[in-house]
Structures are given as structure tokens and as C-alpha cells.
Amino acid sequence: MRRIDVGVIGCGTAGPAAALFLTRAGHRVTLYERVEAPRPVGAGIILQPTGQAVLARLGLADEVIARGARLDKLRVLRHEAGLLLELAYADVDPALFGVGLHRGVLFQALFRAVQREGIPLELGVSCDRLDRHRDKYVIIDERGVRRGAHDLIVLADGARSRLRDELGVLRRADPYPWGALWFVAKDPERVFSSELYQVVRGTRRMLGLLPTGLGPEEGRDDDHIAEVSLYWSLAAREVDAWRGNGFEAWKDEIRAMVPEAGFVLDAIRGPADVLFSAYHDVVMGPWHTRGIVALGDAAHAMSPQLGQGANLALWDAMVLADSLEAERGDVVRALDRYSRTRRDHLGYYQLVTRALTPFFQSDHDFLGTLRDLFMPVMNRVGFFNRAMVLGMCGTADGHPWKRLPMPKD
């Protein structure tokens, strides 16, 4: 196989995963990151069976899962109106489960692996544009310094990618009008365990409590204490008002919805302790041009309603490496194979996420009424329940009944 020179831009999830896969395949890889000293940040994510399978192939699954919290199901309640939805992994396969995880744990495992394998890291480099010279790509940073001469550029610099326009295939990159407030609290008694627990009221109120295990290793005395991530749906236009005068009323509302979350609220001293995450809807097609490919949120950011972001990014990295191997290092053919391979899987999750999100986060009250009427019925019908669980697992490939072939580690 032809060995190529690859520049990977972005050190979140897709970037370091791609760098590891490609380095192990014998390619020369340089990883660029704008932050001078990357460190674990963020809040809770769910590592689905798909993401677990990719990490197993990288030899990182055990260390990541060990610091997470096993999830056996998703349970959603309507406030003061009973069960809305319950999806159990075992309904598809008793061996399947999710892992509630602090995003920093995944970053830490990937970044340490990059360092162990001696992959060149260019930190503190803000990549401004690309220049093609003959058949090579040069990265030009914000100071005008030219870096590298790469056969392939991998864009993994997130939903706000500055270089995505270089592909010329972007259809849309719009911010969602809704996002979420996040806070991570210690949960030494493991009050919240084994499930992602959500409470909804209409389409304007959604509270989630996600067990996230032990969190990243940061050398503190409490690194061994379990954590839980609280998240709260909020329209972006309301964030300033919430920070200005809505904080105490917000805490009171959560206490009324889930009294057991009182210890989480007690740990929040003020609005500054709470992170607001905004989301984007990025649509491209295909995800490559001649020698450039976009992975992860740079290529297909979406609402986190289905909990697939990190898992899709990991799968992207694996498929890219496999495509290069299948085409024996021919970049043009490999990238065409990559986009064709990813089309059905990514298309399914973008479509379902876009359709489902307004039923949980929007100003349209009638959608909440429809959801509350029909979703409990669908939950009790075996076909629909199985389709929803497969969607939760991340394995639906173009259709809810068509499953991805899982990789072997």
C-alpha cells in the first residue's frame, strides 16, 4: 500500500482517533491543534456500542469504560404525567450497554495514545487556510507560516470549522436556536446510576441526569468519586436572562421536577458554574474534495438528542483509515469510498435528529402534545421499540432495521 503524508487538524475526538488509525497503518501523520496545552474539558456524553467497538479496535476501550458509568437504558418521564419512553439495550442484545462518560475521559485516552505513539503534535497552531501546491497541501497559520506538505488534509476542527469552506461542498452550517445548560456534580452515593434519566414538560422543558463515572484523571483526591451530569434544555435567546435573574427560579423548578437532584443543585454556587452548550446543524455532501476530508462535527454536527456525536466521529476515523487501506493509499479513490460508505449511516442520524429534536426542544407546544400521545404507544410496539433501541445504539444504517457491520478488535 502507498504510504501517504497526512495533516490532521483538530485534537478533539475524530482528529486523534484518525491520527492513531492512520499512523498504525503506516502513514506519516502530523496533528495540528490551536490550543497550546489541550486538557480534558466538557461535560457528559454517552459512549454507545458503536463508539465502544471503535475504541476496542484502538485498544482503548477498557481504560475508557473503566472510568465511565454503565447505562442499561434510557428512561423519559413526563412531569407529573408518568412514563413517556423507556429503551433498554437488552431489548436488542443482552450484551449491549451504553457508557455515561465525561468527555474529558475520552479526550485523555486518545491524547495519551497519540503521545505514546510519538505522533508529531503541532500545538498552539491556528490553521487559517490551505494552499495547494502541485499535488500537496500546505497549511498556513494565522501568522502566515506555512506548515507541512501533505497528500491528505483531515478537517476535524469542530462544528465551527474555519477551513470547511475549502471543500466547496458545504450545504448548511446553522446554529440551533436551542442548547443546554450543563453542570457536573459529585455523586458519591450513586443516586443516579444505570440509566440516562430525563423529565420533560411540553417542548420547552427537558431535564436530564446522566451518570458519568469517575471523570478524567486530574490528580485530585476526589478523582475516585462518581459524578453525574445535569443538563437543562434552554433556548439560546434566553441565556442572558437566565444568568441575569432566572438562576434561583431555575433551581426551584428542578427541585420540583426531580427532588432527588437536590444535592446536585446544592453544589451549584451561581450561574458562572454552569456551562451553556450551543449546537449546530452542519450538512455537507459529499464530505470530501480531491485531497481534503471533513470528519466529526466539522462534517455533520447535529443536535445531541440521540447522543451520537462522539460515536459518529470515532466511526468516521475508522472508516477513513479502512478506505485508504482498501484503495491501497490512493487518496482520490479512498475519499470517494469514504463518502459513499458514510452516506447512509450519517444520513439516517441527521434526518432522524432533525425530525425528532423539535418534539423535545422548540416553541411548538402542539408537538409536545403529539409526542405525549403517540410515543408511549410506539414504545409498547415491538417493531418500533426495537427500531428506537437500534437508533440509540448507533447501529442503524440508512434504515432502522438495517444494522452496521460491527468491527472486530
Strand element count: 17
Please state roughly what percent of the residues sit in beta strands, choosing from under 5%, 5-15%, 15-25%, 25-35%, 35-45% or over 45%: 25-35%
Label the structural class: alpha/beta
The whole-number mean of residue pLDDT values reads: 94
Shape: globular
Give the class-level CATH name of the domain at 5-174 and 279-393: Alpha Beta
The radius of gyration over CA amounts to 21 Å
Per CATH, the superfamily of the domain at 5-174 and 279-393 is FAD/NAD(P)-binding domain
Q: What is the N-to-C succession of helices and strands? A: EHEEHHEEEHEEEEEEEEEHHEEHHHHH
Helix residue percentage? 25-40%
CATH architecture of the domain at 5-174 and 279-393: 3-Layer(bba) Sandwich
Instruction: Characterize the main sheet.
Output: 9 strands, mixed
- Measure the end-to-end span: 21 Å
Q: Work out the helix count.
A: 11
